[in-house]
Amino acid sequence: MTHTVPAQEVLLEVEDLKVHFPIKRGIVVDKTVGHVFAVDGVDLAIHKGETYGLVGESGCGKSTLGRAILRLTELTAGKVVFDGTDVAGLKGEELRKARRRMQMVFQDPMSSLDPRQSVESILTEGMKAHGLDKDKEATAKRLRELLAAVGLPESSLRKYPHEFSGGQRQRIGIARALAVEPDLIVADEPVSALDVSVQAQVVNLLEDLQEKLGLTYLVIAHDLAVVRHISDRIGVMYLGSLVEEADADTLYENPLHPYTRALLSAIPVPDPTVEDSREQILLAGDLPSPARPPSGCRFHTRCPWKQQSLCDTDRPQLREIGAGHRVACHYAEDIRDGRIKPHAVEAELVEAGDLNPDVGGLPDVGSAAEIL
Ligand SMILES: Nc1ncnc2c1ncn2[C@@H]1O[C@H](COP(=O)(O)OP(=O)(O)OP(=O)(O)O)[C@@H](O)[C@H]1O
């Protein structure tokens, strides 16, 4: 590990995690012609009871990282140490046991809930798989508790997903995750498919549950505004790796990586005087394809602080710059102390997706202003 973990108890430790998807081509025999470097060397630690927010543009590898932690996607390399055990090497019964303790809540509850299953069946499925449904009465009690915990009436048990609103369906998704008594919940864009009016209710529910049950969360989002309120610490991801990590307040008040600065500068400020006077950093060009990441620092093709040396040749490590504040930029101190200033960037054109017709380039990724 290259970073110092604060003295709290660590529940999850990810070390140099890589997920590379092979790009296959060929009419008769599939030949691997390259790789999508979806996750390419991530180190992070999540403490018991905390909420870690993971943000970045669409296609930067957030979901793949979340899925790899839960072993829903195979790892190419690295470790996922959960409560002291490396789950990357687990198989069979051991893997099943570890999986019970790590659950996922998905972005779109409509597509993640089976429309043919009643809520009762959805909630008991995981319990059955993990042998938690031995006694009928205890199971019925547990189902009532679960529904109460997520704020749904008991009558929901006999209903089907289409009979609920988006917010209620997400409550079912959360209840399903809770049914097997997990310690860690990976919530992948848990509110982005919901109406703005309902988003706060679901965020509040997640917070209440965390307090009551002592849960640990990894919350994945493309929207920095959403994670700010819920997260204790935040990691910013760009093209497969973390570029900055800090506690939520530090990240917002003192962002050091140029990419984080650009993301934050795109969030509108309600005060019109502040809004008119503040600096807006517009990123040039689109996110390069993760099948052909740029050399050196992966952000250098769009970076307004790019320098003549190092940036396009040496990949910067995530290093600790202040207490618990890690940044992957060769010039973080110079940026922090104002010794170097941003300049206009002509984006180097990186053709996206020409290696990979199946995966394509990246879905509609525009400037930071469009992303947030
Ligand atoms: N099974 C797969 N096979 C090949 N490439 C994949 C696969 N899954 C994801 N990718 C590619 O890996 C990259 C990272 O995808 P990922 O979904 O993790 O990003 P993301 O940041 O979560 O984006 P989004 O918010 O759009 O889900 C993308 O280029 C994607 O096309």
TrEMBL record:
Q: How far does the signal peptide extend, from start to end residue?
A: none
Q: Which family does it belong to?
A: Belongs to the ABC transporter superfamily.
Q: Which GO terms describe its biological process?
A: peptide transport; transmembrane transport
The root-end lineage is: Bacteria, Bacillati, Actinomycetota, Actinomycetes, Pseudonocardiales
Q: Name one GO molecular function term.
A: ATP hydrolysis activity
Q: What InterPro entries is this protein classified in?
A: AAA+_ATPase, ABC_transp_ATP-bind, ABC_transporter-like_ATP-bd, ABC_transporter-like_CS, Oligopep_ABC_C, P-loop_NTPase
Q: Which NCBIfam families does the entry mention?
A: oligo_HPY
Pfam families xrefs: ABC_tran, oligo_HPY
Keyword ATP-binding listed: yes
Report the PROSITE patterns cross-referenced here: ABC_TRANSPORTER_1 (PS00211), ABC_TRANSPORTER_2 (PS50893)
- UniProt domain ABC transporter: residue ranges: 12-264
Keywords, A to Z, come to: ATP-binding, Nucleotide-binding, Transport
Q: What is this protein called?
A: Dipeptide/oligopeptide/nickel ABC transporter ATP-binding protein
Has the keyword Ribonucleoprotein been applied to this entry? no
